[in-house]
Write a structure and sequence with these properties.
The chain folds into 2 domains: 103 residues, no CATH class; 32 residues. The chain is α+β, with helices and mostly antiparallel strands and 151 residues long. It is 29% helix and 32% strand. It is flat and about 80 Å long. The N and C termini lie far apart (69 Å). The longest helix is centred in the C-terminal third of the chain and has 35 residues.
């Protein structure tokens, strides 16, 4: 895809390990339910996927529950891009660039969210991991010390 920052267009080629962070629509399909038409069409066009089988018997249902997520970039939509640009051969002394590699810190992000929103998401997930780690340390210390407290 091409991205235009107002000064010109640049080709963006998402690397295999690149981060695509988009606002997403979500569909949940319970066991035995028929998925919406969008999901049915998607699954029919993806050879590696199939629709889950399920049986409803009164209040009981068997089969898989699935969750489908879809994120899209619309033409003209504002995006945030973090990656490394490299020069490519354009011929006739022209220069063209492509952004297809991560930064020196191994970051590559293409998102329809703002930089501020992405930073806030990173902070909040960091606090969750920090709290979970502190809880695990507290549980480990309590289990280590508890035999000595019962003496």
């Amino acid at each position: 895809m091409f991205i235009d920052d107002g000064t010109g267009e640049v080709l963006v080629d998402l690397p295999e390990d690149g981060g695509l962070n988009l606002e997403q629509a979500e569909w949940k399909v319970e066991a035995g339910d028929d998925p919406p038409e969008e999901i049915r069409t998607y699954v029919e066009n993806e050879p590696a996927l199939d629709l889950p089988d399920g049986i409803d018997i009164g209040p009981l249902s068997t089969g898989e529950r699935r969750r489908y997520l879809e994120g899209t970039l619309e033409p003209g939509e504002d995006v945030y891009l973090l990656g490394t640009a490299r020069e490519t051969e354009a011929g006739w002394d022209n220069r063209e660039y492509v952004i297809d590699e991560p930064t020196s810190d191994d970051d590559f992000i293409l998102s329809d969210k703002s930089e501020t929103t992405l930073v806030e998401e990173g902070r909040s997930s960091g606090f969750v991991f920090l709290a979970a780690g502190a809880l695990m340390i507290a549980i480990g210390l309590a289990s280590l010390v508890s035999p000595f407290l019962s003496i």
